[in-house]
Amino acid sequence: VNALGGAVLRYGRPVYDEQSITLRGDEQTPPSIIFVLDCSFSMEADIQGLDGGDKKRMVVAKAVLQSMLNQIVQLEKSQRPDVGIYFFGHRVGWGKDPTRLVFNRAAAPRDFRRSPGVDVECVLRLGEYGLSENGRMARRLRPVRELGGTPVYLAVQRAITDFDDQDGAPSIVV
C-alpha cells in the first residue's frame, strides 16, 4: 500500500547455498609488537641504569630492548607475538659544525643520503620472531649509537602501517 505516494521498499530475503559460522572459543591470538628504538643524539645523556649506576640512555635502551626480545624467544612458539623493529636517528646526524652531516658507516651504506629528520629504518619486518631473528637483532644492536635527529612521529607512523595486514591480533607499538 502506498497511500502517501512515496517510495516503495520491497525486501526479498536472500537465499544462500551454504552457510557456516566459525567459532574460536577462548583461543587467544598473541599480539603483534613493533619496537621503535630512539637513537637520536639525546640518547647520549646519562640515566640511572638497571644496576643503579649512571649509564648512557642508549646503553640502557639497547639492554632493555634485547632483554624483551630474549623473553619473547623463550615463550612457546604458539604464544610468541609477531615482532617488528624500527630504529630512528642511528645513521645520520649533525656534526659540531651544523652545516655538516655525520654518518654512522656501521649502520648506513656508503650511498646513504638522508636528512637526520627522516632517518627511520625498518630493521626487522613484522613477522615471526625466533632464535635466528634474535641472534640477528643482537648483532644488529651492537654497533647502533646515538647520532641523529628525532623523527619519532615518522617512525611510529611507519610502524602503525605495518599492522595493516594483521588479522585480529592486538597491535602494540613500544
Characterise the protein shown here.
This protein is α/β, with parallel strands linked by helices and 174 residues long. It has helices at 57-74, 131-141, 152-162, and strands at residues 32-38, 46-48, 54-56, 82-88, 92-94, 101-103, 120-127, 171-173. The strands form 3 sheets. It has a 4-stranded mixed β-sheet with strand order 7-4-1-8, with helices on both faces. The chain has a two-stranded antiparallel ribbon with strand order 2-3. Helix 1 (57-74) packs antiparallel against helix 2 (131-141). The longest helix has 18 residues, at 57-74. 24% of the residues are buried.
Write the layout of secondary structure elements.
Blueprint: E1 32-38, E2 46-48, E3 54-56, H1 57-74, E4 82-88, E5 92-94, E6 101-103, E7 120-127, H2 131-141, H3 152-162, E8 171-173
Parallel strand pairs: 1-4, 1-8
Antiparallel strand pairs: 2-3, 4-7, 5-6
Helix pairs in contact: 1-2
